[in-house]
């Protein structure tokens, strides 16, 4: 296997399938002594996900869906 002039390589299909390296999968290179390891990039938690995680389970008012909908409609 060779690196192209653009710095690209082809990961063999067996390795891609075994490790779930699908198109558009983010990967990272980890230097390790005299070699480089390739792995899936660790998931980055986005701002929206962090906000939802902080708010989860924080509601203190016990209302039914119908009561909430009535409030939003101004009934």
Query: Termini separation (Å)?
Result: 69 Å
Q: How would a crystallographer describe the biggest sheet?
A: 2 strands, antiparallel
What is the total number of structural domains?
1
Q: Say how many strands there are.
A: 2
The chain-level structural class is alpha+beta
Our estimate of the beta-strand percent is 15-25%
- Percent of residues in helices comes to 25-40%
Which geometry do the CA atoms define?
elongated
What would you report as the Rg, rounded to the nearest angstrom? Answer: 24 Å
- Average pLDDT: 88
SSE pattern, N- to C-terminal = HEEHH
Q: Which segments are poorly predicted (pLDDT under 50) over 5 or more consecutive residues?
A: none
Q: What's the helix count?
A: 3
Kindly report the spatial arrangement of strands forming the biggest sheet.
1-2
Question: In words, what does this structure look like?
Answer:
The structure is a single chain. By secondary structure, the chain is of the alpha+beta class. It has one domain (13-73). 33% of the residues lie in helices and 16% in strands. The protein has helices at 13-19, 47-55, 65-73, and strands at residues 27-32, 35-40. A two-stranded antiparallel sheet has the order 1-2.
């Amino acid at each position: 296997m060779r690196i192209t002039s653009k710095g690209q390589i082809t990961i063999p299909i067996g390795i891609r399938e075994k490790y779930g390296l699908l198109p558009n999968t983010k990967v990272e290179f980890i230097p390790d002594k005299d070699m480089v390891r390739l792995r899936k990039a660790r998931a980055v938690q986005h701002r929206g996900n962090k906000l939802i995680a902080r708010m989860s389970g924080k509601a203190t008012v016990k209302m039914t869906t119908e009561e909430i909908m009535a409030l939003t409609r101004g009934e």
